[in-house]
Amino acid sequence: MTVFLVIIVLALLAVTGWQMSKIFQLSQGPEADSSEIANDNDNRQQAKLMLWFMIFLYVGMAYSFWQWSKLYLPEAASEHGNQVDTLMFISIGLIMVVQVITQALLHWFAYKYQGKKGNRALFFADNDKLEFIWTIIPVITLAGLIIYGLFTWSDIMNISEDNDPIVIELYAKQFSWQARYAGEDNTLGEANVRFIEGINTVGLNVNDPYADDDKITTELHLPVGKEVLFKFRSQDVLHSAYFPHFRAQMNVVPGMVTQFAFTPDITTEEMRTSEYMVDKVRTINEIRKDNSEALMAEGEAPLDSYEFDYFLLCNKICGDAHYNMQMKIVVESEEDYNEWLSEQDTFESTMESVE
User: Nearest 5°: phi and psi at 329?
Assistant: First the structure.
């Protein structure tokens, strides 16, 4: 009923506006120009509006960069992340240069060559020289970006077994993640959704000896400075493993294993003490403090203080609780990582505990 009433009110407002426009036209008198053909005055007004819009566009753009650039992610926390950022900034730089030049010319020409009585537009069928210029420049620019991007992608995706990377499987399901460490043999045991039963939540083959020393966790710990090879599986629908601070992302596809590797180079504690993160955490906690005061005034519990952590997120809309599909990531020294990993139960011990 409320929606119906809103529609009626909007319709009445539209009719009122239309009637008022008719009254305005009648009030102008017989001497007013009612022609629908633009005259010199109309063209002059439109030309000035184009200039003002150009000024508004660039002022808004400059303000947006000044006001919102602080929301960009901090420095990349992986070795290849700097390559990704460089590629992105080069692309943004080229786009901004082209945008500034072309939009300025567009609006200036609209003002300079505004319609005037007696003027006739120059028409020519084609210009081979101009067409060559505006074709070859984008071709060269795009080819350079694509080639540079391919080399960057190749550096990221070509995983050398000589580096003996740590092998970790990330298992996705609605709406959580589980990590499976390959154990001392650094070889993951066989897994399939058909093997899922009881506490065997990731579907390991209990008859595969390589699975015995695998360790399954709900928190991801990574040693700084060590290459990690991630293998991804999905139990149900298409997910996407997104590591924003490490500039890494990979689709997690049901029925197949996808993979990529990266080397974290900034620990969680180092990121927490960075100037960017200290300022961000302070700002968030100030907002939370104000919100907590309002909540406590209503008799509700205050918000907890925020502390930065790396997180693995799902970047595909995979269902109702997609927004909350995340896993905490801890990047630490190799010594702390080994200590934490030694405290985790193996798959073999977990299965024996329920027999």
Answer: -115, 130
In the block, residue with structure tokens 């630490």: 332
Of 80, 63, 51, 242, give the one whose Cα is nearest residue 153.
80
Whole-number pLDDT of residue 281: 93
Checking DSSP bridges between strand 310-314 and strand 248-252, what pairing results, if any?
Answer: unpaired
Per DSSP bridges, beta strands 166-173 and 228-234 are parallel
In angstroms, rounded to a whole number, what is the distance separating the alpha carbons of residues 125 and 113?
Answer: 20
CA 152 to each of CA 76, 160, 246: distance values in angstroms, whole numbers, following the listed order: 15, 15, 15
Q: What is the dihedral of CA 203, 209, 210, 216, to 10 degrees?
A: 50
Neighbours of 273 (CB within 10 A): 11
Q: What does the alpha-carbon distance between residue 218 and residue 229 come to, in Å, rounded to a whole number?
A: 18
**How high is the pLDDT of residue 348?**
86
Question: 245: burial class by Cβ within 10 Å (0-12, 13-18, 19+)?
Answer: buried
- Both tokens of residue 325? 């599909």
List pLDDT tens digits, range 51-66.
Answer: 999 999 999 999 998 8
How far apart CA 231 and CA 193 sit, in angstroms, is: 15
